[in-house]
Structure formats: C-alpha cells, structure tokens
Amino acid sequence: MPEGLEQGLPPRESDDLRRLAGIMVPASIEYRLPGADDPAIFADIVASLGRDRAAVLQALAELRQIAGEGFAAMQDAAAEAAAMTLLGRQGPVVVALGRAVLQCYYRDPRVHRALGREPRPPFPLGHKLEQGDWSLLEAQKGRARMWRDVDNAGV
Amino acid sequence: MNDTASPRPTDDMVDVLIIGSGASGAAVAWSLADTRMRILCLEQGDWVKPTDYPTNGRDWEARRFGDADILPNRRGLKADYPVNDDNSIMKVANYNAVGGATVHYTAHFPRMHPSDFKVKTLDGVADDWPLDYWTLEPYFAENDRMMGVAGLAGDPSYPPHTPTMPPVPLGRTGTRYAQATNKLGWHWWPSEIAINTVEYDGRAACINLGNCTPGCAQGAKASVDITYWPAAIRAGVELRANCRVREILTNEHGMASGVVYYDPTGVERFQPAEVVILAANGVGTPRLLLNSASGRFPKGLANASDLVGRNLMLHPWPMVSGYCDEEMDGDRAPQTVMWGKEFYETDRSRGFVRGYTLQYSRGTGPVNEAVSSMVAGRLPWGKDHHRVYRTLYHRRLQIGIACEDLPEAHNRVTLDPVLKDSHGIPAPKIDYTLSDNTKAMMEHGIARATQILEAAGAKNISCSRSVLNYPGHLLGTARMGLDPERSVVNEWGRCHDVRNLFIVDGSIWVTSGGVNPTSTIQALALYIADQMKQRLANLFD
Lengths: 155, 541
Description:
The structure holds 2 protein chains of 2 kinds. By secondary structure, chain A is an all-alpha fold. Chain A has one domain. Helix content of chain A is 48%, strand content 0%. In chain A, helix 2 crosses helix 5. The longest helix of chain A is centred in the middle third of the chain and has 15 residues. Chain A is elongated. The termini of chain A are far apart. In chain B, strands 1, 2, 5, 6, 7, 8 and 16 form a 7-stranded mixed sheet that branches. The radius of gyration of chain B is 22 Å and the shape is globular. The chains are: A mainly alpha, B alpha/beta. Chains A and B meet through helix 4, helix 5 and helix 7 of A and helix 5, strand 4, helix 8 and helix 9 of B.
C-alpha cells in the first residue's frame, strides 16, 4: 500500500473501516475476487472518501457504539454481527459508507476482469453496439395517429 | 441612471445582455447575433474541457457521486449555489458551466405535443399557453438542425417531422423492450436523441461511451457549448465565464438598466445594457428576480402578479427496474433507447388527467449497479454479495415514467432567509409537493412499466416512491400569458412589468408536458429571438 494514503483517517478508524469493508464485500475463492479489505482497494477507499468522509466517520462511530471498543480485533462472528447491525440501519450515513466502499471495489482491475470486463476508461475506445431487431418496429408503423388534433378540440 | 449609487466599476454598455449560457441562453444568443448588435452573455460557471469529462478516467462512475454529480448541493463546486430543497420530495438538479445542464443531460430530445399547449381547452385544467405547437414547429426544426437529432420519422404519436440523422441502435436492451411492448399491443418508437449517430456538423459520431451524463468526451452529444456557442461566438457574441450576476438594476423609467455581477476575481461590477434576457433556468431566474427587489419593485422584479417563483414544476419521475436472465448492453450505449406514448394523452377513465411518457433506458455500469442496488436493498452485504451481484450486473431493464405535474401556486421558489452562496447572495428555497393527480398518474405508470418488464421476462422488479429520479427539469416559475395579472411574461417572452426584460428559459412554461423539456425550451428561445428581431424598431412599446 502506498505510504500516506491512510492519512485520510485516524489509525483506529482506518483499522475498523478495513475490517468492516472486508465483511461488507468479502474475498471469494469461487469468483476469484479480492475483498474490499484488499490493500490496494482499501487504500483507494480511504483516498477517495471525499464528500463522504464525515458520514463514514459517523458510521464508524455508530459501529463502536454497537460493538464497543476494538471492533478491528473482534472474533469473526461477533464482528460480523456488529457489522450487520450497522448495515441494517436505514439512512444517509450507511448509504454513504456503502457508496464509499462500492465505488472503489467495482473499479478495481481484478474485479473488472472477473466480471469479464476490460479494465479501462470508456474513452477513447468506446464500445460496439449492435443494431438490434428493427423488424419489431413494423408492428408500430401501421398504427393510427395518436396525437390529439388541437384544432378540433372541443368540437 | 441606476437606483443605487455605488463606486463599483462600470463596464461598457451592451445592446443585449444574456444571463446564463445553457440551452436557452445559447440559442437566443445565436439567433440574435445576426442583428449585429453588441451581445454579451454572463455565465457563473466556466468552460469545461472534454478532457476533464469523467469517461476519460477509470473513476468515471465514482465522479457521478462527486464533482460530476447532478445535484449542486452534493457537487458544491465554486460555480454552484446552494439550494434549500429540504421541503421537496424532488431535489434540484442543475449544472453551472458554459452549456449549463446540457453538459449533464441524457440528450433525450422529445418535443412537446400539440395537446400540451392547450390543456385548459382540452382537459379543463391549468391554463392554455398563449402560443401553440404549430407556431413553434419551424423553431423545433431549426433547433434540430443546430443540435443534431437522431431519430426516425413516422412516429404516430407526433405530427410528422424528420430527425436529422438515423436513430440510435435498439441493441439488445431495445430489442427486449420492443418485443415486450409489442406483445402488450402498446406504442413504442425509437427516441429522438441529440446524440450523433453519424458525423454531424463537424462533430464525431457516438462511440458508445455508455455514460452520456455527465459530459460526452467524444463530443457526440449535443451540449450547447459545442453546438450553438461556437457559432454564436464566431458571429460576434461575447461570452464571459465565471461571472455571477447578483441583481438586475432598474432606472427611473422602470426599465432594466443592467446588472451587478462579480467578475472572475470577485470584484463587484456594473454591466449596463439596453436589453436584459434571463436564461438562468426555472430556479435561477426567479431567484435573481426576487433578489432584484428594490424600492420600485418591492416584491421582486417583474413580480406585480406575485407569480415569480410560483407554479414550479419538476417532472416527478419514478424509475421501475427489473432484471433479465441474459446480458444486456447497459453502460455500453446511450442510456435512452425508445419512448412509449400509449398513456400520454388524457383518458379520464384512468383516474387522472394528462399523462406521461415511458422512457425506456439501458442499464448502468458496475459501480452504479452496485450502489443503486445497495440503496434499493437488492444487493446484500457479506457472503451472498457476489452471487447476487452477478444476477444484477448488465442485466438491468429500467423504465422511467416522465409524469406531467400541473402548475400549483404553492409549489414555489422563494429566497432562503439564511442560506447564501459564496458571494453572499441569498440562495433559493424550494417548496414542492405532489398533487393527488400526479400521485395517481405515477401509480398508473408504475403499474404499466411493471407490465412491460414482466412481459420482457424481467424478475426482481421494483420502484421507489420515496426516492424519485431528479431530472433537473425546472419549469413554470415565471409563466407566460396574455393577462399581466396571471402571468409574468407576455406571449413573446417580454416581462409585463419591465419592457426591456425578457425571459427565455423553462421559467416561462405554462404547463410542463410529460417530456424532457430541452427541445421545447430551445424552440421557445429561438421563437422569442425572432419576435424580438421583428420588433426591433418598437421593442419596448
């Protein structure tokens, strides 16, 4: 992990968020996927908090209220239970937390390749788009006029 | 003579001053340029370079939650002003830059229908417009030529007209929609979209970047910074970016004398003008008129009718999503593909008047799929996350319901007593609720869109009533009409109360129709410009 990227969060919050991210989106052998606590992905999450930073810190504070101190070092079952309690809450704080994790996870090159997607920006190569079946429009071409004739309104 | 004495520097007089460089400001500037008058446009935002658009980078989706968000309150850029929309189910979307919201729009480009201009006559609600579809028809056509519109002639839901280039491909998603809609016997037609399907007017064809909002790095989407503005500037119009107007001043004759604005360095200046044209959208324009209150106009400029800011219409827009069992072409094509007008015209047996467009859309990219499905409760956290995600990714079908909301005086823009922008100018406050007619229309549309998705074989169909799509269609807050007591501007855009002050943006709409408004906003702006040109000798009579 590049040095300094975690400066976006204090150490305790960073540890808690990393543990939490790994529970939210765990690594998968079946799908050959890293978890959101993967070093590169997590560094991206912390560096990209941006407008959601305050909400994420609020979410972590709520997590500490649920789990008590030391969430990052908790046993797996207890940590997962605390995390799911937090994530089950409605509201903008949990949405911001989810967005902060997902926006980085789903741009990771390994995740893109696992989805069968080339890890590149859309521009300049773009994508191919097939025409589709234009014969389906024939069913519409014989329809009577649908727009209302204003000149005859009320007549 | 100004109504305030001030040491602020004064710029050279211009003949025409346009406030705002978006869809309508660009069109009116271009049209008036052939008069050879000195025309100046002040724009509070900057030019945005195509190389800065999100699709240049791998963080293209995440930027839609940040500096490229449609909501100014989330974006919070230097050019943005805050909007208090806490008391509104619909949030205000806009974009403050050269080109305005056309930089961020999907470029879905339907015209209003003939019946939309005669709702009182036809349906007994709201008011008729003081002009009709046929008056605007030549300006729709001229605007289509300037912007470039892909589509297909022959749609039975519209009077005949011919788009300027072939339609956007149906692709897999459109084919699936078309099969389903045919099965139900309902109308659909390829959408008219201001995106190049072939090279047009020196701009390249679409290469399916898949994220038309915000900003097209290819230049295939017709935002006015690359359509009208280059032509207007070549014709002699001056556009000053990063200049925020604070208020419009008036003279002893009750005429607009010019505007006070902040230049790019933050210096407050006075720009005198013979004619002032407002093109700042349905929130920005009433905000500016209300902020221009003075001893002569204590309720706000051009507000003797007390209608400035009232009758705000925002197009409530539920989105119905479902997922099919094979991969579609989401995020690899323009987002909108076709429209359905089966339920557009009034049928009172449905339990409401007026109607809606069904806007058939393609799915979205990997981040947006994950985030929106997380918000909707479709995508779990933990062990089952990856399995479920694979049933969602690139399998989305999504139909938007573009509802016509009728004008209601209590839906309005006022000035927030506390909130201000970075220059200390009072910010707008929005109060907006849904009427029973709108709610009934929404439910009808949700049910019909659900039927289409079911016929398309989609599963996991859902629609939020509490989080609607926010299209940024800001309409109705300075409406046009013949009666000065019941409207703000006359039938050709001139304020009843201030004879050298014109409005050309969506504020002047009498009713909202059930379509994306940009095509009609621009046709109206071109029409008003033509009316001004025909009356130059007696414009203020």
